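Predict structure. Chain length: 301.
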Amino acid sequence: MTGTPGRRGTLAAVSAVLPWVLRAAWAVLPVVAGPASEDALDGRSRAVQVVASLGLWGIWAAGVLATLVPRPAGLTLLRVAAPAACGAAVVALADDAGAASLTAVVATGVAAVLALLPETGELFVNGGAYGDERRHLLRPPAAFLLGPVPVAAAVLVAAVVTGPLLLAARSWVAGTVAVVVGAPLAVVLARALHSLTQRWVVFVPAGLVLKDHLALLDPVLLRRHLVTSFGPAPAESDALDLTARAPGLALEVRLREPVPLAQVSPGRRGSETRSPDALRFTPTRPGAVLAEAERRRLVRA
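Prediction complete.
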């Protein structure tokens, strides 16, 4: 399967417009969601208002910087902060169903949707690409998406904000405990979530690299002269499964000769040495991966 000129043109148009749409959606948040935040903080002590406001402005500024200079770390920030902002707006709407709260829900919801788009992920991971390489994110396992990832993001936000807010409210003991416990917990969770932005299929001049700590002990280079076919994996594919049980369309690469690799053993420590002549994986944007493979002549039009 290969891309058509029309499809390639559409992909290029999306790639050109998306950064500006994302920047605009994040930049206007203080204007469209700020009033709801002020209403939510009304009645709180001055210290709590100041700490909360400084935190919101700090996160907003970090998000603006992330959209201006896309990097994998910025992707982690946006994919935690934007849904958290939307969740906070929904809570505020439940407490006060006014126009300001509704506007905040819509604005933060748009920002969250944009942050979670596969195209956004590709934009940010390629911000740190070297030379003539093109990175494509791999889709997380279904089990991660249904539980650990949203829970980890929610706990990360709670770990960051709870301590400072309690201290601002003069709950000294509880606030101190929350900071002492929350700071290291936030670091651990942030690293775990960030690791999901480090799972790639990478096109390089020499061929194709698979980098996935969930499936492989070390990255594996599939040299271009060894690739005989590259396309959607058949339902009954016998290729080595490196999808990590991720949902969505898997792609299959077949090779002229086996390539040694160390596959992480699911549910067990260590890895197994294998030498497959075919393997399959699940990118977040399989169509874009195939289009890039065609552009680099890994597949024939």
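Summary: The first strand starts at residue 134 and ends at 137.
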